[in-house]
Specification:
Order of helices and strands: HHHHHHHHHH
Radius of gyration: 21 Å
Number of strands: 0
Length: about 210
């Protein structure tokens, strides 16, 4: 078995990352492995097995985070005027479980992005609710600007701001409680699960930074 490539060299982004997923042939895999410094002495079947296992582990982590939020929502908030599960948490789960090294997936961004965006969204609804189109556009634009200003950019935060404006009467009735629940507690649940599952493999570390 020859030496594995360094972590830095294996994680350099390339233009191929932006292409849609296509079926890989054995020749594709062999040619790719030959381009790696310190050619890996494995078969194409080994490669496919590793890929399938890695994909399954990624899906398991993603499932665990959303499952925790959904379970808490079902057992503690269904039947009340409160909610824990909102659509933007699904996008957050993709980041914190599927792109753990991204700056956008770190705790500061995960929590701060949702909290600030929820605060902006609720405020825009209360002040500009008579003009929904204006409230929606101002909420998202302001949330983006505020996240940039505070270094808490988290793309799903824009959806949280929008949900605060276009949400149901139940969401609107929560007022600024929406900032606490679900916009703070929901991401906190994802963070706790991410800390547990993302750090199980020795080769993975989460978070990259806290503040």
């Amino acid at each position: 078995m020859t030496k594995h490539p360094s972590r830095e060299s294996s994680e350099q982004p390339s233009a191929q990352d932006d292409l849609a997923e296509i079926a890989l042939t054995d020749d594709d895999i062999l040619e790719a492995m030959r381009e790696i410094p310190g050619y890996l002495d494995i078969t194409t079947m080994d490669f496919r097995a590793v890929y399938r296992l890695a994909h399954r582990h990624a899906i398991d982590r993603l499932f665990s985070g959303i499952a925790a939020v959904a379970w808490l929502n079902q057992w503690f908030f269904v039947g009340t005027d409160l909610t824990l599960a909102i659509g933007s948490l699904g996008a957050s789960a993709v980041l914190v479980f599927g792109a753990v090294r991204s700056p956008l997936a770190q705790p500061r961004n995960l929590i701060g992005g949702h909290v600030l965006s929820a605060l902006v969204g609720v405020t825009c609804w209360q002040w500009l609710g008579d003009e929904p189109w204006l409230a929606q556009s101002v909420a998202v634009a302001t949330a983006i600007a505020l996240m940039h200003l505070t270094r808490t950019l988290h793309p799903p935060g824009g959806a949280t701001a929008l949900i605060a404006v276009i949400g149901s009467e139940q969401v609107h009735a929560m007022g600024y409680l929406f900032v606490l629940l679900p916009a703070t507690l929901g991401p906190l649940v994802l963070l706790i699960v991410a800390l547990l599952f993302n750090n199980l493999p020795a080769a993975r570390r989460y978070p990259e930074f806290w503040l």
